[in-house]
Each structure stands twice: as structure tokens, then as C-alpha cells.
Amino acid sequence: MKLKDKVAVVTGAGYGIGRGIALRLATEGAKVVVAYGHSKADADQTIVEIEKISGTAIMVQADVTVKAQVEAMMKAAVDEFGHLDILVNNAGVANQSRLLDLEEHIWDWILAVNLKGPYLCSRAAAQIMVKQGQGGRIIQIGSINSTRSVPGRSHYAASKAGLVAMNKVIACELAPYGITCNVVAPGVTYSRMTASILADTEAVKNKTLPSIPMGRIGEPADIAAAVTFLASDEASYITGVNIDVDGGLVPAPVWDNV
Questions:
Q1: What is the pLDDT of residues 188-203, one digit of tens each?
Q2: Where is 35: in which H helix or E strand?
Q3: Catalytic-residue membership of 156
Q4: Cα gap 110→113, rounded to integer Å
Q5: pTM of the full predicted structure?
Q6: Three-class SS of residue 48?
Q7: Which of 15, 36, 119, 156 is catalytic?
Q8: How far apart are CA 64 and CA 164, in angstroms?
Q9: What is the dihedral of CA 246, 251, 256, 258, to 10 degrees?
């Protein structure tokens, strides 16, 4: 119970990595605010699974790109549980578009959800944490695409690289208040976002798996484990870092004769 009586807001917690994080935090004793953007049915299922493990959770709908909704979400957490200790900025979107075909509205959408959203949520949560005077944890869910060049993902890569850069700065700004800010960067991980890609079993077998030194696709639980560590007291002296959870994909050599 590393997080007993802590209160955590997890955005995009209705499914996939977000649900995995919410469940793990609840397992460790945290009271969880399951934040979702569109699908109440998905959020309901996350609540059901948390209740199965005797966890405590509420759900809140919020568009992370809208300041008023973000602030209302944080207020709901404090109103329900009395305080706020952990924020996990997991909500994100992806799209495959090469530069010559990349429309402006798609660029704006990706940057709004993946970068503006974490800015608004981090700001709102930090204001509460500073006022409380008990420190806190802000954890961004990034991507290995912030450091790897993948054709068709310039907008996604820009949003995640911007997230890493923003996090380094706010980590320095918030350190005097005992608030740590870190990034967890998933590699290829099973989720709704990657379902269409991973559905091609031949491509996974012949291309994806051979590129991952550990030889398997990541699970939401792998990401949740890293988040839980950073949210715990054990990580109280870690801030401003980007942790790849990718089975060795980023540092893997791109040649055979090593």
C-alpha cells in the first residue's frame, strides 16, 4: 500500500494505459479520480474494476484542453476526498500523417490534447498542491516517439518532445514546494491507440518483436508500475526525468553485426 490515503487524478483513465494506471494506484491504496473525455461507459468499467479490488474512485468528465473544465476536475477531487496528491497526465491522441498530407487542424488537435492538456492540468494541480503545502507528484505520460524518428508522426513527436521539455522546466520551478514532475515514456504497448497496428500479427512477429530486445509488446501494467514508483515516497528525490518503458527499444542497435 505505497499510496495509502493519497488522492490521484488520472486523465484518460477509461481504457488502456490510463485504466491500467488507475487500477494500480487504487491497488496501492490511492483514492482515484477517473477522468475521461468522451466515453462514460469506459470510465464506468474502470470504476467497476477498481471496486472489485475494494478500491475507492469517482469519475469526472473533462476536456483537458478547456481550462474551466480542468479546474472543475481538480476541484471535484478535493471536494470529494479533501486533498490532491498525484496527477497523471495520461490523456492523449495520435494520428498517422506525413508532412505533405498533414492538415493544420490535425496538427492543432494533436498539440492541444497532448501538450496544452498537460500544461493546463499540471498548472491546476500544482496550484492546489502548493496551497496544501504537502508536496505532490505530477507524472506525464510521454512516448518514445519524443526521441525516435517515425515517419508520419511529426506532429505526435512534436507534442511529446514538447511535453518532455515542459516537464524539465516545471520540475525545477516546483521542486522548492516538494512537488516532483517526471515523464514515463511507453514504447510499443497494447492499448486502444495501437490496436489497429498490433492487429497485423505477421508484422508484429516479423518486424515489431525483433526490434524490441526484450522480445514482447508492453502491457499497461508495465507503464503503471513505473508510474506507481514515481508517485510513491521512494521516488521523492527524483524529478525532471524521462523514463523509457519500452523493453529496450530506444537503446537497441539498428544494425545486426554488433
A1: 998 877 777 777 788 7
A2: strand 31-36
A3: yes
A4: 6
A5: 0.94
A6: helix
A7: 156
A8: 18
A9: -140
